[in-house]
TrEMBL record:
The gene is glnD. It comes from the Bacteria. Pfam families: GlnD_UR_UTase, HD, NTP_transf_2. Its cofactor is Mg(2+). Has four distinct domains: an N-terminal nucleotidyltransferase (NT) domain responsible for UTase activity, a central HD domain that encodes UR activity, and two C-terminal ACT domains that seem to have a role in glutamine sensing. One of its GO terms (biological process) is regulation of nitrogen utilization. Uridylyltransferase (UTase) activity is inhibited by glutamine, while glutamine activates uridylyl-removing (UR) activity. This is Bifunctional uridylyltransferase/uridylyl-removing enzyme. Its EC number is 2.7.7.59, 3.1.4.-. HAMAP family: PII_uridylyl_transf. It comes from Pandoraea terrae. Belongs to the GlnD family. The lineage of its organism: Bacteria, Pseudomonadati, Pseudomonadota, Betaproteobacteria, Burkholderiales. Modifies, by uridylylation and deuridylylation, the PII regulatory proteins (GlnB and homologs), in response to the nitrogen status of the cell that GlnD senses through the glutamine level. Under low glutamine levels, catalyzes the conversion of the PII proteins and UTP to PII-UMP and PPi, while under higher glutamine levels, GlnD hydrolyzes PII-UMP to PII and UMP (deuridylylation). Thus, controls uridylylation state and activity of the PII proteins, and plays an important role in the regulation of nitrogen metabolism. It catalyses: [protein-PII]-uridylyl-L-tyrosine + H2O = [protein-PII]-L-tyrosine + UMP + H(+); [protein-PII]-L-tyrosine + UTP = [protein-PII]-uridylyl-L-tyrosine + diphosphate.
Length: 854
């Protein structure tokens, strides 16, 4: 036993030397198959040597399964093995198998092992398709050959190719759904994401199970693939394999996700160099997205071809659509392989039929293959054909199916060949920490959101948007605007201005009316305006609303801009949209609509209406008739204009009996809109109060969405905060009492402000740092100063800003916290009395920049 314990050392060294030799050779020649097969052979030898060194019994067989069984090993992949036995008792096997597995670990192999009899293998495979898939690639390494052949025979007997196909098809759909059905996330998994290596492996598993072939060459011989498709598959497979191997080597562990901080070194390892226009990582990722797109296309073709072989009785024509197209089991199919060559206008007709024919699921393999082979026909002459322009506009004008049609057109490269400028943004990354999709996918997501407003089944999601679009004449115009709103990204210059040129050219060439053309061009140019006004400006200021209304001009434009803005923000990232942003936009829409309808923003009338509504709510709370007056007499007009009547009533109900309270009053409730917590603080004012409160919230992990700071005529601070905690694993109601008591105690103690922590940046922010920006300027009246800060988001950031302001005794009136993914753009309205000293301004700006540095 002692000799065996040391036997692994020379074997370990031999394996290590062989791996080093293979990796050095790969670094020189980049031949990925030689590396993967070489790694596998090296481990094969080590396995067999270990088997002999451990004196394993003759009745057992050592079998490679999974990727190792397939004959491919990546630098840090697990090595999956099966010790096959002939119904031996577990306690009799353990003294042999356990030391053997330990021996392999001591040799430096990361082992995934199972010990089963033939009967157990068959039962496990029947119960779990993952086990069945792993055993499908079983390969004998050493040991009892007769036992292994018995297993192979039994496994082949019970393997049902049709059931296996259906199981893997469902598994594939689930996996794709996990990755949002897109290969275009900014940090894709090169193995598991749609268009990744797993999609190629699934096909070969299916064909292997069905006896249709184990390689692309064999599938070509069976006429499941054309020669051109085999060439494309091999080229993209080699690229993806090489990418995965290099990821393992750079990370020094198993790593399949193309995380941001790996993308640049990965690109450099492939010899990709940055240019003046594009980073090395951008060029690499674009190459990846094009590969994933090609794999997705070919995977769809192959799946249908394999299905037709396995289920021939269900692959006939369902109905004739016209003389050029038929439907086969929900798929649109051309009747003649040369159709697109003879009549290229049929290319766009394919997608129009896909929209119009209810129940179609997609395009058949024959149609997809013909589109793939017709790419060279989609040239300038084809784009300029009046019939094609008519068909494309008709595709955009259909009442249903537009999103699916455009996505399918993008997958088959037809959309990028028709809209050349769209082709430029396919696979283009966005390094703004705000978008989580490539530009083309974001555009299609915005189109989807616009279309979703018009679908009755989704009316519950955004009822106000659904109501507006139902009354909007020619809503397809919004789809055109959505298609072009970001189409000029990455060209240098303002993408909104450049996009206006593209949009106008499109509208004129497609014969759109002057009214619709002007609307589309205006929307593309102004698509960021409404969110900037709502999130960064004081929308209670009549001048702000008046200026925005003048820019918008009429109700149709306002409605169109509102719908596009909501769709755009929702299409950037699941994290960016929240109910509070929705309310800001809706409030801006409603008040601007009143101004466009002829109403003058009259603060006095607004003040009166708000007070009356708040009093009505107070009566519902059974608050006595004049109880509100002591508090309201201390509040200025701005308080009532900046707070909803419901908020005014809530605060009044808690404070009307405590107007002169010497101790802090802290009250909290679940946010009236969306998820979150609303917290009110009432206390004799102190210069560092805002900083103290911000520090408390950030220590509790509560993010501030909005802050309204008021000072009463009696010198009391009346501050309101809207908070959220994405990681909260309980109800907001459960933390109300804790926040109220802890925050009140903290303010009472009035201890010196602690030093701000230099919060660690999130991983994505470290990869794409935002240069901190501070802008401090007086408003038009000179009474207040507007402070705008932009930086990477991190824990403690808002407290750091508030602490600088407190140190210079600068009071905050309102704070608008705008988190865009992992970037913040916060706006503060500051009391201007001290900031008129230019030296103080410079000192504040300098210290803020230092505080914003991570």
């Amino acid at each position: 036993m002692h000799a065996r314990a040391h036997a692994h050392s020379p074997l370990r060294q031999a394996l290590k030397d062989r791996k080093t030799e293979l990796l050095d050779r790969f670094a020189q020649n980049g031949k990925i198959d030689a590396l993967l097969h070489g790694m596998c052979h090296a481990v094969d030898h080590a396995m067999c040597d270990a088997w002999r060194a451990c004196g394993m019994p003759d009745g057992l067989a050592l079998v490679a399964v999974g990727g190792y069984g397939r004959g491919e090993l990546y630098p840090h992949s697990d090595v999956d093995i099966l010790v096959l036995h002939d119904n031996g008792a577990d306690d009799a096997l353990a003294p042999h198998v356990e030391p053997f597995i330990q021996f392999l670990w001591d040799m430096g192999l990361e082992i995934g092992s199972s010990v089963r009899s033939v009967d157990q293998c068959i039962a496990e495979a029947d119960a779990d398709i993952t086990v069945e898939t792993s055993l499908l690639e079983a390969r004998l390494l050493t040991g009892n050959r007769a036992l292994f052949e018995t297993f192979q025979h039994r496994f082949a007997e019970v393997l049902d190719p049709r059931a296996f196909f259906r199981g893997k098809q469902l598994e594939l759909r689930q996996r794709h759904a996990k990755y949002q059905d897109t290969p275009y996330s900014l940090e894709p998994n090169c193995k598991e994401s749609p268009g990744g290596l797993r999609d190629l492996q699934v096909i070969l598993w299916m064909t292997r199970a069905a006896g249709l072939g184990n390689s692309w060459a064999e599938l070509f011989e069976r006429e499941l693939l054309t020669e051109r498709e085999v060439k494309e598959l091999r080229r993209n497979e080699q690229f993806l394999k090489g990418l995965r191997a290099r990821l393992h080597l750079l990370a020094k562990r198993r790593q399949d996700v193309l995380v941001f901080d790996m993308q640049t070194p990965l690109a450099e390892s492939l010899g990709v160099e940055a240019t003046a226009a594009k980073r090395a990582s951008e060029q690499l990722m674009r190459r990846y997205y094009w590969a994933a797109k090609a794999v997705t296309q070919l995977n769809t073709v192959l799946l249908q071809n394999v299905e037709a072989k396995l289920f021939p009785q269900t692959s006939g024509v369902t109905r004739v659509l016209n003389e050029r197209f038929v439907e086969k089991q929900g798929m649109i199919e051309i009747v003649d392989d040369d159709l697109f060559t003879r009549d290229p206008t049929a290319i766009l007709e394919t997608f129009l039929l896909y929209e119009k024919i209810i129940g179609t699921k997609g395009l058949s393999a024959r149609t997809l293959r013909a589109l793939y082979n017709a790419r060279d026909l989609m040239n300038a002459q084809w784009r300029a054909d009046p019939e094609n322009r008519r068909l494309f506009l008709e595709i955009l004008q259909q009442p249903q199916g537009i999103t699916h049609a455009l996505r399918l057109m993008n997958q088959t490269s037809v959309l990028g060949r028709y809209l050349i400028n769209f082709r430029r943004v396919v696979g283009q990354m966005q390094h703004d920490l705000y978008h989580v999709y490539t530009v083309d996918q974001h555009i299609l997501m915005v189109v989807r959101n616009i279309r979703r407003f018009a679908v009755a089944e989704h009316a519950h999601e955004y009822p106000f948007c659904s109501q507006l679009i139902a009354n909007f004449d020619r809503p397809w115009v919004l789809t055109v605007a959505a298609l072009f709103h970001d189409i000029a990204k990455g060209r240098g210059g303002d993408h909104s201005t450049l996009g206006m040129v593209d949009a106008r050219r499109f509208c004129v060439r497609h014969g759109m009316s002057q009214e619709d053309t002007d609307l589309v061009v205006w929307l593309v140019g102004e698509h960021l305006t409404m969110s900037q006004v709502a999130q960064k400006q004081d929308t209670t200021d009549p001048e702000v609303i008046k200026g925005f209304a003048e820019k918008v001009g009429n109700e149709r434009r306002l409605t169109a801009l509102y719908l596009l803005t909501v769709a755009d923000i929702r299409g950037t990232s699941p994290k960016v949209w929240n109910a509070w942003k929705g309310k800001l936009l809706e409030d801006l829409y409603r008040v601007t609509l009143q101004v466009l309808g002829g109403a003058n923003p009259d603060p006095h009338a607004q003040l009166k209406a708000r007070k009356e509504e708040a009093l009505g709510l107070l009566r519902l709370y059974t608050v006595p008739d004049h109880a509100h007056e002591p508090l309201w007499n201390t509040l200025d007009v701005a308080f009532f204009l900046r707070n909803d009547p419901a908020d005014v009533a809530w605060q009044t109900r808690h404070l009307c009996r405590h107007v002169n309270s010497p101790t802090p009053i802290v009250k909290a409730r679940p946010a009236p809109i969306g998820e979150g917590l609303q917290v009110m603080v009432y206390v004799p004012d102190q210069i560092d109060l805002f900083a103290r409160i911000c520090g408390y919230f950030e220590r509790k992990g509560l993010s501030i969405l909005d802050a309204k700071v008021h000072t009463t005529s009696l010198g009391y601070a009346l501050d309101n905060f809207l908070l959220t905690d994405p990681g909260l694993d309980t109800s907001y109601r459960d933390i109300i009492s804790l926040v109220e008591s802890e925050l009140a105690a903290l303010i009472t103690r009035a201890e010196p402000l602690p030093e701000p922590s230099k919060g660690r940046l999130p991983r994505r922010s470290r990869s794409f740092p935002v240069t901190p920006r501070v802008d401090l300027r007086a408003d038009d009246r000179g009474q207040y100063y507007l402070l705008s800060v932009s930086a990477n988001d991190r824990t403690g950031l808002l407290y750091a800003v508030a602490r600088v302001l407190a140190r210079h005794r600068v009071s905050v009136r309102t704070a608008r916290i705008n988190t865009l993914g992992e970037r913040v753009e916060d706006t503060f309205l500051l009391d201007g009395s001290r900031l008129q000293d230019s030296r103080l301004q410079i000192a504040v700006e300098t210290e803020l920049l230092e505080a914003l540095e991570p």
